[in-house]
Write the structure tokens for this entry.
Amino acid sequence: MPELPEVETIRRGLNQFIMKQKITKIDVLCAKSFQGTPTLGYVTDIRRFGKALVVDLDNKNSLMIHLRMTGQLIYDGEERYAAGHPSDNFTDKLPNKQTRVILEFENGTLFFNDQRKFGFIRALPTAEVPNDKFIKKLAKEPWSMTADELYAKLQKHKNSPIKATILDQTIICGLGNIYADETLFEIGIHPESKSGALSPKDAESLLHAASEVMQKSIDSGGSTMATYVKADGTKGDYLEKFAQVFRREGKPCPKCGTEIVKIRVAGRGTHICPHCQRILS
DNA sequence: CTAGGATCCTGTCAGC
DNA sequence: TGCTGACAGGATCCTA
């Protein structure tokens, strides 16, 4: 679930709360959620690779964390910092039914919650991080990629719908279901368009839109996540104020007023303006 | 090699 | 009320 902007928001939050702190104990409540051998030490760095986080420790080991669809990281210390899959339980008493791993720190506790158990924490030597089978395959993030590079990849997957192509982290890194829909809306391209139908200029505007959409979300302090449950416990309007099309089916397109429609593309729920987004051919 | 569909798992919601 | 199927902010595996 969390896409690049949410994971970056989590990274910044954790940087504030667990950097230089020592992990004193790790409790694995669900074996599937923790790969490798738990390891204790001081946090020396918190890095992000696409949608994955890597917590480096001073003992030459690292903890790679991938939240997948429903992962949450909630730090409970003097104050609580919660981010990840949005839900009411950000304010729950923890651990709860969805808590899979508990990392104890000197001054607080980090809970890894994950309803569907698709996410995981993986312990590995820090030196092996660049060779990790997931991290190794990641493509560049949109702001680091040239239009020529993207265009070449689109040609390589010319028969796949463009939405499926930009969800593939080995082609372009960071987009998930929300930002893919938002990006394609911004550039007025229908998600079912074949990737090969995009021109080099389309590739350029896609990169630009993807960068802007994700950067805007990061800049708003993870409006999509961290502020979802406000201090008083009420729900924030994290998607409402951000999304132009995502989960806005039945509502008017912000550009032209046509009703937004939900369809299915590449096996995922997909939101479009049928007037602004035409199928390229 | 690419493309498309099933699959991992739990929870919620719409429809009967 | 209780059941059923569809679906979910991701990625991998299997098949054609």
In short: The first helix of chain A runs from residue 4 to 17.
